[in-house]
Amino acid sequence: MSEKTISVQTKPPYGMIAILFIGAFVAILNETLLNIALPAIMEEFEVNATAVQWLSTGYMLINGILIPASAFFIQRFTDKRLFIIAMALFTLGTFLASIAPAFGVLLGARMIQAAGSAIMMPLLMNVMLTAFPVEKRGAAMGMFGLVMITAPAIGPTLSGWLIEHYSWRMLFDLVLPIAILTLIFAAFKLKNVTPQRTIKLDVLSLILSSIGFGGLLYGFSSAGEKGWDNVLVYGTIIIGTLALISFILRQLRMDEPMLEFRIFKYPMFALSTTISIVISVAMFSAMILMPIYVQTIRGISPMDSGLLMLPGAIVMGIMSPITGKLFDKYGARTLAVIGLIITIVTTYYFSKIGLHTAYSTLVVLYTLRMFGMSMVMMPVMTNGLNQLPAHNNPHGTAMNNTLQQVSGAIGSAVLITVMNNITTVKAEELAAKAMNNMSANANAAQSSAQATAEVQQQIMNEAMLHGINFTFFISTLITVIALILAFFIKRVKPNQVTDMEIQRDVPGE
């Protein structure tokens, strides 16, 4: 089978990368923009919480189905054609969502959006890996981290402000002109950087991958709402697991797999992927628990809760390029160890927050936590990808993106379950104690219904806070695992990659 020679560009195509950056930024931003608007959409279209949640769940499922297949698309089609198709789908979905006359149209529009955005991140990562030599990838991937981490962090704040002042449709109206301009620039300015191969798509692999990753994502994402004993939850998890095992076994037997699992034989890639999975699980603790704490327990408005997270997003945006340059100079281990220690300390302090913790304290803790995270995610991922031969870059980027999606869903489900269970147990304990106190009080019979309601609310707030504190403590322990693994990181030298590529390309190998 013929394969074009893989070479690093003598001069990186900065114009092309800028276009890809903008496309990826609006695509990722769009994932988190809609979350805060779900109540308004429920009211307008008169749908329940289960139905409206599909706007997020469906988006995630399409990503889970298409991201594993992105390795095939990147190798089979030119960068320009693939990005234009992806951006056109995203733009069409955004337009349809903006004018949606019914909930079904809005849901379909979100699915079309997701089909476009699923390809953008792996494509951008692959172009970056191809366009820059190993010794300069840190700075390049640091800029990529600016997109990957800052966009979802800014989303809630921007969304909160827009929802407070305009209709939820403004979320799409804002993105649409940017998407159209990006599409126009792409048609004229994009060129091909990554090599193409004449490979065929294995339909059975695509089906098994879709059922496997889609089933796991749906099952774990639904567990928090439906409960683990729901047949739809454990049924889809079991089916997804069986399909995923079949998919992996099939890929290992194929000469040209849709997703190459043999890349895990490279130790630094395997280690970096494991650390990234652990960090993704831990990172979701703050993303899930903080909104519950500040809005449900503290009664802080959605706008102010979004502003609470904004300094952290700004810090991550500033730090991503800096961290990339530090990675090129010092490697991933030093950055990861320092960043994880900061993350562990701040996460532990989150496990100690109370009912009256100052807003400024929460802002500082969250910002420091994001500062620590910014030193870990991209350096660890880049170090792992650096060990892969260039022809395996599409598989490496697809694998990273897929596993982050899956681990995020699993982490969310587990953490929500832990919080709910601890909250329930604590609420029963506090309620029993309150009943004993009331029985001992001679004037208990004269207590008003309002006072009883206040006591019940206080019990629920204290119980939920206890559940959140305990879950943050579990998240701290999870992050400690990542810290231990980080000490085993070794820097991948440019000549090591060259040697592996030479070995791979020897005839008869």
Helix-strand layout with pairing:
Elements: H1 14-33, H2 38-45, H3 49-52, H4 54-66, H5 70-76, H6 79-99, H7 103-131, H8 137-165, H9 170-189, H10 203-226, H11 231-253, H12 267-297, H13 302-330, H14 332-350, H15 359-374, H16 377-386, H17 393-440, H18 449-486, H19 494-504
Helix pairs in contact: 1-7, 1-8, 1-9, 4-7, 4-10, 5-7, 5-17, 6-7, 6-9, 7-8, 7-17, 8-13, 8-16, 10-11, 10-17, 12-16, 12-17, 12-18, 13-14, 13-15, 14-15, 14-16, 14-18, 17-18
Can you describe this structure?
The protein has 19 helices and no strands. It has helices at residues 14-33, 38-45, 49-52, 54-66, 70-76, 79-99, 103-131, 137-165, 170-189, 203-226, 231-253, 267-297, 302-330, 332-350, 359-374, 377-386, 393-440, 449-486, 494-504. The protein is globular and about 80 Å long. It is found in: Cell membrane.
Q: What's the helical proportion of residues?
A: over 70%
Give the CATH class of the largest domain: Mainly Alpha
Radius of gyration over alpha carbons?
24 Å
CATH architecture annotation name of the largest domain: Up-down Bundle
Strand content: under 5%
Q: What's the rounded overall pLDDT mean?
A: 81
What structural category do the secondary elements indicate?
A: mainly alpha
